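Today's session is about reading a structure prediction critically. Students often jump straight to the picture, but the first step is always the sequence itself: look for stretches that repeat, for charged clusters, for runs of hydrophobic residues. Only then move on to the predicted structure, which in these notes is written as discrete structure tokens rather than atom positions. Here is the chain we will use throughout the hour.
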Amino acid sequence: MLTSDLLRYRVKKKKVYPTYLDTSSETAQQKANLLTSIFEDSLHETYETIDEQVSQAIGYGTDFLIWRGLAKLLYDRSEFNTVSAVDPVDTRRVVFETANRLGPVTSDEVRARVLEEAATQLVCTAEDCEAALYADLKARQRLTEYKKLKPDVLLDRYNMAQAQGILYKATRMEIFLGEQDAKLLRYLFQMLKFYGLMHRIWKADDGWKVEVDGPASLLRQNRKYGLQMAIFLPALVLMEDWKMVAELDWAKDKRDYVMELSHEDALVSHYRARGQWISDAEKMLEDRFKDYDTEWELERRGTLLELDGGQVLIPNYVLKHPDGRVVFMEVIGFWRKSYLERRLEALQAMSNTPLVLVVSEKLNGERGKLKDSPASLVFFKTVILIDKVLDAAESVSK
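Below is the predicted structure for this chain, in token form.
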């Protein structure tokens, strides 16, 4: 992700516009080629060596901010680790103790003697000993893994990162979807749940409307939720016909700035609408449920439930009993008191459709708690307790 100092944008009449890079520019393509080549060719090189090459490639021209942003995205795909034959901390201790015993290191000869004696104690060579001395410093750490990225994809990622960075300031987001391919639509709703975003969905005559609470609307968990909001954006960009309006807390004590994006913007998604995305808590629930002694069966199914007023709920699971009872189950990640209360109101409007809400206590976005917790509400911290879920299912399906 890009840090705030690397974001490029303009503000006009309280609208914030990301400044996109012209990906067809010959200069941009040359820089992207050069930067990606540096990382691809530098496996096992030190951070210091790579950073020097990057600095030379970037230069100090007027477009410095753009090229530094491209480099930041490549650094994010890189893993630097301490590579040393012996532990650097132990090496420094033994070397310094040896130097203190032998006296001041006033010549290369004395220095070589210190390293030789220290190496004997550490059971390594003098060269290994010298290399290990400061191998754990960031500048001396080595590139051990790099996820390759094609130059043209890097440029697309840069434009996406500009919009994502601005979303950190969002207090609320509205999404308008035209008629979509059914698979794409299911994918989008699934990603809303996977990233734990607080949302409401309405069916409209010409498509769908989705409201999403933003990171700045939370009193706690702000940074983590902001990241979830940002990494959701590429999923939205995959849609065929869409528009998003994000309300921003852009200026101090003022929340009436907005950013508008749509399918007409220069954004290219790197996501693929395929597979199943479930949280760790859900995966653990599914694995444990297989061996749990119960007549109930758990089935992952994104069933669409229409409520009064056109609102829609899409539970994560369906619980089935041999006697014919069916209970829907929705797992909620981030939440606020008001958000949960709205969900409970939706439950009351679904008196003929039994639904259980399974809610994370750890991802409560504020200190507010419900005064009364109905039987259809199950809280969990890390592990979703199956017995509590089944008790709730029994209660709502009587």
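Discussion point for the tutorial: DSSP finds twelve helices and 16 strands in the chain.
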